[in-house]
User: Which sequence fits this backbone?
């Protein structure tokens, strides 16, 4: 069953076959503007008829990547938990702060640990990146940095991104965005992304057969990125 959403008339399947979207806030801080943005995205996901699984980095607290620890014990339980949540979702949204013009180390560390599982969980995952920052560019540089490892891992990172500038004063008390134009733009970005993600679950022609991830055992010869 499909229904048009309010914002853009995009149709997304609702009901038991609804698209499941993991919405991950890249900050665990109380009062995090990225967690607030993630909550808005999750609300829009639900309004469109899809299912949102809202998470934040604190749900996946893990040690810094250590190759010896991996060899001895394998990836830590929190990395396995994040992998499970990723596998259960057809799409991923990350709301990430910008730290020093890049992504937070804790987020990159989680990506590194999760990338060690096979099959590699980010491969082919439809992914939308959003950010919020007190700055005038809304943390957008951090998203360009985050795009690099995700695209390297074969995630299908949506071309459009949403970066909320002056985020400390951008939210109303009820959690909505103050600016109506930005509200509409966020809704339209999320809806367009969901439409593509859902189409990707139904139309095989969207799958990139030429794609090769260097650590993927389905490609020959098998190579490990760390051994290149
Ligand atoms: C920041 N912040 C920041 N902001 C920005 O726009 N560009 C940047 O390069 C940085 N660098 C940076 C480094 C470090 C280590 C910290 C702790 C912070 C500020 C950051 O955007 C601000 O603290 C946000 O509020 C963080 O997001 P959350 O936690 O509110 O979601």
Assistant:
């Amino acid at each position: 069953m499909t229904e048009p959403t309010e914002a853009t008339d995009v149709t997304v399947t609702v009901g038991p076959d609804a698209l499941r979207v993991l919405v991950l806030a890249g900050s665990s801080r109380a009062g995090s503007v990225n967690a607030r943005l993630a909550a808005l995205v999750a609300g829009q996901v639900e309004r469109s008829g899809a299912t949102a699984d809202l998470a934040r980095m604190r749900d996946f607290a893990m040690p810094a990547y250590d190759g010896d620890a991996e060899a001895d014990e394998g990836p830590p339980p929190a990395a396995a938990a994040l992998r499970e949540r990723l596998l259960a979702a057809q799409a991923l949204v990350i709301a990430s702060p910008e730290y020093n013009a890049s992504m937070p180390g804790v987020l990159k560390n989680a990506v590194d640990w999760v990338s060690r599982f096979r099959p590699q969980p980010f491969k082919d995952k439809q992914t939308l990146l959003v950010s919020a920052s007190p700055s005038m560019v809304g943390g957008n540089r951090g998203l360009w940095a985050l795009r690099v490892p995700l695209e390297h891992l074969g995630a299908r990172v949506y071309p459009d991104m949403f970066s909320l500038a002056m985020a400390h004063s951008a939210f109303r008390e009820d959690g909505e965005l103050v600016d109506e134009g930005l509200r509409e733009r966020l809704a339209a970005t999320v809806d367009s992304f969901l439409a593509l993600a859902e189409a990707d679950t139904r139309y095989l022609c969207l799958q990139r057969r030429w794609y090769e991830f260097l650590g993927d055992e389905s490609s020959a010869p098998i190579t490990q990125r760390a051994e290149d």
